[in-house]
Amino acid sequence: MARDHGGNLDAAQARFGAGDWIDLSTGINRQPWPVPPLSEAAWRALPTQAASDALVRVAAAWFGCAPDRVLPVAGATAAIQLLPRLLPAGRAAVITPSYNEHAASLTAAGWQVTPAPDLTAMEGADLAVVVNPNNPDGREWTPARLRALAQRVDWLIVDESFADPRPDLSLAPDLPDNVIVLRSFGKFWGLAGLRLGFVLAAPDLLARLREAAGPWSVGGPALEIATAAMADRTWADQTVTYHSEASLNLDRLAAQAGWRPLGGTHLFRLYDTPDAVAEQDRLARAHIWTRRFPYSDRWLRLGVPGNRAEWDRLTAALRD
To answer: For the Aminotransferase class I/classII large domain, which residue ranges apply (predicted)?
Structure first.
C-alpha cells in the first residue's frame, strides 16, 4: 500500500531548486518550543527509569489521565506499526480519508482493512481506527460518540496526534479498557526530530507494548526535552492562542486566492483548489512546499506559517 506523506522536501528541492524553503507540508508547529542546553547525562548515558518516570508524570498531567496509562514510544508512527502485531488480526475499519499509515501498517500485519466513511460504518469491526481531529479534513468526534463506538467494536484506536490544542476532544481522562489513544509530541511542540509519542491504554496492553518496543526505545535527549516542554503551560497557552488566530487568517488568505476552505486543525488547513498540482507548483516556485493527496486532484493542505516573514512570503505567492 502506498505510504504517501508530507515532509518530502528533497523532492521539492530536486525539482524547484535549493534555497530558503518554507515547509508547510507537514502540519508540524513552525514555532517550536525553545530547547535549552541539555545535561551531559542526556547525551552520554543510557536513559534511566527515573527520567522515563518523570516524563510519564508530566505527560499524564497534560493528558489528564493516570500515569499507569501512559507509555512513551519512539514516535506515534512506531506505535502505529507495532500495535497491529500485538492485537489478533481480523477485520479493521479505518476512517477514510485519513492518515494513511494506519491502513498500510494494518495491511502489512495481515489485517483485512475496510475503509469507513463514518463511525456508523465501523460498528462490528474487530478493530476501528479513528483520527480525531482527522487528518487531513479536520473532522472531529466527541468523546461520548467515540465511547459509544467502543462498545460496538472489539478494539478502538484513536489517533489524537493533533488534539493537544483541543483537550475537549480527548478520550484520555476516561479511557475504556478496549480503547488505545495515540499522541504525538513532535507536532504541537514542533520538535518532530525527537521521534517521540505516547500510547495511552490499559496497563496490561502497555506492558505488552513495552516488551515489544524493547529497552531504551526513547532516548535521553527526548526524555529530558519533552519533560520540560510538556510542563511549560505558559508556552502551550500562547501557542494555542497563536494558532487559533493564525489558522483563521490562513483561511482568509486562501479564500482570497479563490480556494474553498474544507476544514483542518490548529496546525494545518485543507483547501479545495481549482487544480492542486498547479497550485502546489505555483507556491513551490516561491519555495513554499505544501501537501497534496493522490486521491484528489483538488485538495491542498497547508501548515500554519510561523512568523511574519513566512506570512509575507505566502501572501505574496498567493497573489502572484
So the answer is: 46-317
Q: Give the whole-angstrom CA distance, residue 133 versus residue 139.
A: 6
Kindly state whether residues 173 and 238 are assigned to the same domain.
no
Of 177, 207, 231, the last residue of a domain is: 231
What is the predicted pLDDT for the residue at 3? 63
Among 99, 155, 144, 146, which residue's Cα sits nearest to residue 118? 146
Query: Which residue's entry shows cell 524493547?
Result: 214
**pTM for the complete prediction?**
0.96
Q: What is the DSSP string of 301-319?
A: EEEPP-SHHHHHHHHHHHH
**Same domain, yes or no: 277 and 130:** no
**Virtual CA dihedral for 181, 185, 187, 191, nearest 10 degrees?**
-160
User: pLDDT tens digits, residue range 84-93?
Assistant: 999 999 999 9
Residue-level pLDDT at 1 = 41
Closest CA to 59 of 227, 246, 259, 300: 227
